[in-house]
Design a protein that fits this description.
331 residues; alpha/beta; Rossmann fold; 2 domains; 6-stranded mixed sheet; 4-stranded parallel sheet; globular
C-alpha cells in the first residue's frame, strides 16, 4: 500500500509505493520524480534517542553512545542492553546527581571514520537546546571531509530530545527505506524536526530542587500541594515549563488536551505516537490508556519507552511524555 510522508513537509508531492528492499517510485504530483540514489549512505544518531538499542539496530541506524559519571565510575548509556542497568542508575540517583558531558570532536571522528570508509553519512544529533555536541559533530565532519574527499557527510541538529528525537529518527528510517536519497532525507529532517512534539510533566520536584532547577522552598510548596509542572520544547529545542497542574490525573488530562490541540488532524491524528517515562511505568500506562481512548486512528503500536540515563540525569524520576507529529513548535 502507498506510503505517504507526514503532511506538511517539503516533499509532500512524492508518493512512494512498496516496502523496504523493494521500492517502486510512484508518480509525482508536484515536484518531479525521485530517482533512487545509487550512493550508499549510513543514517546515524546518538544514544539519547531513548529507544531500545535492539530497535534502533533493527531500523539499520548506527548509534554513538553518550556516557555519564556517578560514584566515581564512568558508564555508557545502556539503551536497554542490560535489563538491570536503569534500576541500578536510579539507586545511584538517590545518592548523587550523575555528571554528563557533551560528545567531543574526537569521539565523533572515531564514530564517523569507519562509517565513511563504507559510504556517505547522514548524522542527526541530540538537539542543541540540550547540548552543544552538534558543534563538535560539525567540526569533526569538516575535518573528515579533507580525509575522505570522495565521501559526503551531513550533520543535522535534531532540535529534539529523548524519545521525540527517537521518533524523528524513526520517521527518517521509514523514508530512507521507502527510497529517499541522502539529500532528500536531509531536507525532510530539517523541514520536519520542529513538528515533533513532546508534551510532558513531572511529579518529582525534589529532584528538580537537587539539580538546581527550582528553589528548595518552591519544591517544598509544590510537593505539599501536589503540583506537577507541565513542559514542552520550543523552536530552539529548549525546555519550556509553561504551567503547573495539581494532581497526576489532571496532568495526564492536560497532556492529552495539548496533544489534541497540536497533533496533525486533531482527534483524527493518524501518525506515530510514542510515550516515554523516567521510572514511572504506572503513570505511563495511564497516559497510554488516555491517548488510545482519545486518538483511535494512531498508526501502528504506541511504543512505550524508558527515558535513558543521560536525559534522566537531568529530569530525574517521575517524568512522563507523549510524542507526536503536529503543527510547528513555537518559541
Amino acid at each position: 500500500m502507498p506510503y505517504s510522508p507526514p503532511a506538511g513537509d517539503k516533499l509532500r508531492g512524492f508518493l512512494l509505493t512498496g516496502t523496504a528492499g523493494s521500492v517502486r517510485i510512484g508518480t509525482v504530483c508536484i515536484f518531479g520524480v525521485i530517482t533512487m540514489d545509487p550512493r550508499p549512505y549510513t543514517l546515524s544518531c546518538e544514544s539519547t534517542v531513548d529507544l531500545p538499542y535492539s530497535y534502533v539496530c533493527g531500523r539499520d541506524m548506527a548509534v554513538l553512545f553518550y556516557s555519564y559519571t556517578a560514584l566515581g565510575q564512568k558508564r555508557e548509556e545502556p539503551m536497554g542492553r542490560d535489563p538491570e542497568a536503569m534500576a541500578a542508575f536510579y539507586r545511584t540517583l538517590e545518592q548523587e546527581v550523575p555528571v554528563t558531558s557533551q560528545l567531543n570532536a574526537m569521539e565523533y571522528i572515531g564514530f564517523f571514520t569507519p562509517l565513511l570508509r563504507k559510504g556517505d553519512v547522514l548524522h542527526v544529533t541530540l538537539g542543541s537546546g540540550m547540548t552543544n555536541s552538534v558543534a563538535n559533530a560539525r567540526q569533526a565532519a569538516e575535518q573528515l571531509r579533507e580525509e575522505f574527499p570522495d565521501r559526503r557527510i551531513t550533520v543535522i541538529d535534531s532540535l529534539c530530545t529523548s524519545t521525540g528525537y527517537g521518533m524523528l529518527m524513526d520517521y527518517a528510517a521509514d523514508l530512507r527505506d521507502a527510497g529517499f536519497g541522502m539529500d532528500e532525507l536531509a531536507e525532510w529532517i530539517a523541514g520536519s524536526r520542529l513538528r515533533i512534539h513532546p508534551q510532558f510533566f513531572s511529579t518529582d520536584l525534589n529532584y528538580f530542587r537537587r539539580s538546581g532547577r527550582v528553589s528548595g522552598a518552591a519544591a517544598a510548596i509544590g510537593t505539599a500541594l501536589n503540583f506537577c509542572p507541565v513542559m514542552r520544547l520550543d523552536d530552539e529545542g529548549r525546555i519550556v515549563a509553561y504551567d503547573r497542574i495539581r494532581g497526576e490525573k489532571a496532568a495526564v488530562r492536560h497532556t492529552v488536551e495539548q496533544m489534541l490541540s497540536h497533533a496533525e488532524g486533531g482527534a483524527d491524528y493518524s501518525g506515530k505516537c510514542f510515550i516515554c517515562h523516567s521510572d514511572s511505568p504506572r503513570l505511563a500506562g495511564q497516559l497510554l490508556s488516555a491517548v488510545k481512548e482519545r486518538f483511535p486512528h494512531i498508526r501502528g503500536e504506541i511504543r512505550v519507552c524508558e527515558i535513558g540515563a543521560i536525559i534522566a540525569s537531568h529530569c530525574g524520576p517521575g517524568t512522563v511524555a507523549v510524542l507526536f507529529y503536529g503543527d510547528e513548535r513555537k518559541a
